[in-house]
Amino acid sequence: MLRVFRDLFRYNREFAIGTILVLIVLSLAVASFFSPYPPQDSYVVPPDVPPCWAYPLGTNSRGQDVFWQLTVAMRNSLLFGIAVAFLSRIISLVIGLVSGYAGGVVDRVLMSINDTFVVLPLFPILTLFYFMMHDHMSWTLLALAMASLGWPYDARLIRSVALSLRNREFTTQSVFSGMSTSQILLGEHLPYALPIVISTTINNINWSIGLEVTLSVIGFTNIETPTIGTMIYWANQHTAMVAGIWWWVLAPVATVIMAFIGLFLLSVSINEFIDPRSRLARMGA
Amino acid sequence: MLCRGRWIVEFPRMRAYAWYFIRRLGQFLLVVFVGINVVFIVTHATPIDPVEQAISSATQFGQSDPRAVEIMRKALRELYGLNGTIWEQYVTFWRRLVTGDFGPSLSAFPTPVSALIAQALPWTAGLLSTSTLIAWGAGNLLGGLAGYYRKNRLLKGIGIAATGLQPIPSYIMSLVVLILFGYLWPILPISGGFQMNISPELNIRFLSSVVTHSILPVLSLVLITIGAWFVGMRSLVSNIVTEDYVVYAELAGVDRRRILGSYIMRNALLPQLTGLALSLGAIFNGAVITEFVFGYPGLGTLLVRGVNSGDYSLVLGIASISIVAVAAAVFVIDLLYPLLDPRVKIE
Amino acid sequence: MDTALTVRSLRAYYLTRYFGITREVRAVDDITLSVMRKEIYGIAGESSCGKSTFIKTIAAAVRPPLRVLGGSIKYSFLDRDLYDLNEKALADMRWKHLSCILQGSMNVLNPVRRVRESFKDFAFPHLGLARREFFDVVNQHLGRLHLSPSVLSAFPHELSGGMRQRVAIALATVCRPEFIIADEPTTALDVVVQKDVLALILETQREIGSSMVFVTHDLTVHANISNRLGIMYAGRLVEEGPTGDILHDPIHPYTRHLVASLPRIGDLTPKKALSGAPPSLADPPSGCRFHPRCPLAMDICRQANPELTPLASGRRVACYAVGPLVKPAADSAAAPQATQADKSAAFLQ
């Protein structure tokens, strides 16, 4: 397994760039634990100072060090994204696997429900949710809401993997040779399903952070918690762009773009590595 | 002109299509049903009572006559359809949706919510359709070319750009476009649907103003969505190129451009069309957010305004209409699909 | 000239480099053969012996990672080597002079277009007829293959497997090409349809007068259709000769084994399997590639590769044990090559 990673890193440029970007972002998030200022306090440093040695990314109009704010923001956004991805993974795995393996009526019913949820436009619904919850809105609730609405796309992908696995010859062979269902699932199928689970998880993290940023920027979440989105929100509130405090906006935007591209490249290169046809194309070229 | 022989061959297919239409219609109704139920649950299952909320925000300054408050409470309950038992509320909810009457908007009293939505909807629809057509069309075309002509450097470069664009979320992209063209290189208007002092009539001045104001939002939305279509199409095409019928056509020396168009693209567009139907919900999200960033007078701006002014009916109305609109668009695409793919078994 | 196709010392390998590992799969390793006019030359061999790769090379369908590394391919209707032609000349030549009937003919037609469009795409540019006359010719041709003209307005998935195969044959022969390449055209069909399709192919080939290379692993099909037969093993030709001769009197140990494994009515003896497995073409055995499994293997077989030597009856065999090759001196590595050079020169006269 480790050798695969090492080979991927050395020969697949996308994987290498993706890993580097993700590592940068992760180290920022980990650095947040060493922040000298409590994240939610304001006016701890002189405001509106451009980037310099003392404050590597400058300070914002609320008197906070942009760099340390950023680390906390990145950590919170990442945690949120991972939480949502994890929760929605559970739902999409259950529905996708059950649908793919059971087939027949169960499959049709579940897919109808799936297609229904896929079509629902999330933003108005989440906005409505926020409207109803107002000050009682918490990150946990938001995560739950997003997870319960964001599973259908991935469920369909997992289902197609389950379908193809179910029909493969080695499955029938395993059944005939007396392997129990759990043995088949864990031993034979998991290695095939794992890559797609990993890549959909990564995509889901991207998606949920994106949605969080969007909602926070408009102010529809708990804006006291520093996240990438809320940083931009406060920047907008203080009209940072017009006031010329561009580093306040640039830092979170650039970091989150790095995170997105990094995660995306990882998921793309893992996918490509798994799919034998794309491997063939790479070999021939 | 349908000569008789052909008609006889076509008739069973047409009858099968009628069944398909009915099934798709059923799916459409199901989506609307589930969506509206979700909306209902969200609004009624939370501990917050919108009536109390409205009243507390209205009475937060100074004192109010308790009788006036009581009248207000009763009026609001009536307005919001929150009278009676849960079942009665449910029925009222549905009745209002079907008649399209969500009552008057609180923030723009007494304009009915439906009027506000009707005003905003064409802008959103226009933005959505224009940018989706451009993004889907151009993205698929370029992606198809990139998948076929793998050595072309220009296409490879576009590919890298598309891969870079794809993961960036809607808000960030719109923000970047806004900054680029609003602050760094201000050549295009960045807010509003048209110049503020022109009255909306059908003349050249108004229309050209509409067009210039829509350039940036459309550009944003296209940039947001084109990456995914490009990358998807490119990988589809590189798979289709190995299919038997493509290999055979190449063996026969069929003109390369004809192969690309008739054999490869035609086949690749089918899953992309399905993909379009599946992603319409997400594209709608992107459109709404872009509108908000650019202050474009569509549903997005309206929605945010509604939330910020505590306008319950408006938010509810927009959420419901969004669900219906997206479901309807998906329905239309579903109907188009069998016209393009003769293999669709219309069971 | 009497030969329709001459292939000399053809070598085509799959060269891959992925994750720092370079591999060279020697799928077609030094093949020399000729096909006469109006003859059906069959190629037989087990899976992964290189037959399909060979087809790709003579059909000019070589795509990376496959590469032609050496040798020449000359068709009678071309004035130069196949790989010396430019794109345009290749495209002009395709289908009009050289056409293919492929494995999996089920799927060779564009699924979203009617059959008529495929005919227009493939054959119309070459026949140079007006539209109406073109479709007259097509209809006539379809009739000869027992297909009704209504097939033209159908979509591929609306036709049965056998019909699609016949349409594919019609498509490949409508321009009356001089050379047809057929790669396992009947493998996916049941025996009854197979018989019909084979008869059809034979009838069409005779009527047009084209030469054909027919590849299949099924010797019984060769018995019914090929005039001459070439046996391939691990990327090399090991025996060649008139089909009847080979089936009645196989010489090479591999061919002997293949023929012996065919079931015969009334024959109840148990068939013995060859030990071992077909060699990996990425790392083939030294010398004669069959030697690890050959019951007649000698020392020389491990060291040097036997050349195809012509025999009196118009056959060729590549084997030290049974061929009339003089056993070269065991200590001299140069000697086998000298002998082979002589033999090759004699053959190519």
What keywords describe this structure?
heterotrimer; A: 285 residues; mainly alpha; 13 helices; B: mainly alpha; MetI-like fold; 12 helices; globular
Strand-helix topology:
The complex is a heterotrimer of chains A (285), B (347) and C (349).
Chain A: H1 2-11, H2 13-31, H3 66-102, H4 104-119, H5 122-133, H6 139-149, H7 152-167, H8 169-176, H9 181-218, H10 228-237, H11 240-243, H12 246-274, H13 276-284
Chain B: H1 4-44, H2 50-58, H3 66-80, H4 86-99, H5 113-148, H6 153-165, H7 170-184, H8 204-240, H9 244-251, H10 256-294, H11 299-308, H12 312-340
Chain C: E1 3-18, E2 21-36, E3 40-44, H1 51-58, E4 66-75, H2 87-93, E5 98-101, H3 115-122, H4 124-127, H5 131-144, H6 161-173, E6 179-183, H7 191-208, E7 211-215, H8 219-225, E8 228-233, E9 236-242, H9 243-248, H10 253-260, H11 299-303, E10 309-310, E11 316-317, H12 334-347
Parallel strand pairs in C: 3-7, 3-8, 5-6, 6-7
Antiparallel strand pairs in C: 1-2, 1-4, 8-9, 9-11, 10-11
Helix pairs in contact in C: 6-7
Description:
The complex is a heterotrimer of chains A (285), B (347) and C (349). Chain A is mainly alpha-helical. Chain A has one domain: Orthogonal Bundle (MetI-like fold), CATH 1.10.3720. In chain A, 77% of the residues lie in helices and 0% in strands. Chain A contains 13 helices and no strands. The radius of gyration of chain A is 22 Å and the shape is globular. Chain B has a domain of 185 residues: MetI-like (MetI-like fold, Orthogonal Bundle). Chain B has 12 helices and no strands. In chain B, helix 6 crosses helix 8 and helix 10 runs antiparallel to helix 12. The longest helix of chain B is centred in the first third of the chain and has 41 residues. In chain C, 32% of the residues lie in helices and 22% in strands. Chain C has an 8-stranded mixed beta sheet with strand order 5-6-7-3-8-9-11-10, sandwiched between helices. The longest helix of chain C has 18 residues. The C terminus of chain C is likely disordered. Chain C is α/β, with parallel strands linked by helices. In chain C, a hairpin with a 2-residue loop joins strand 1 and strand 2. Classes of the chains: A mainly alpha (285), B mainly alpha (347), C alpha/beta (349). At the A-B interface, helix 4, helix 5, helix 9, helix 12 and helix 13 of A face helix 1, helix 7, helix 8, helix 10 and helix 11 of B.
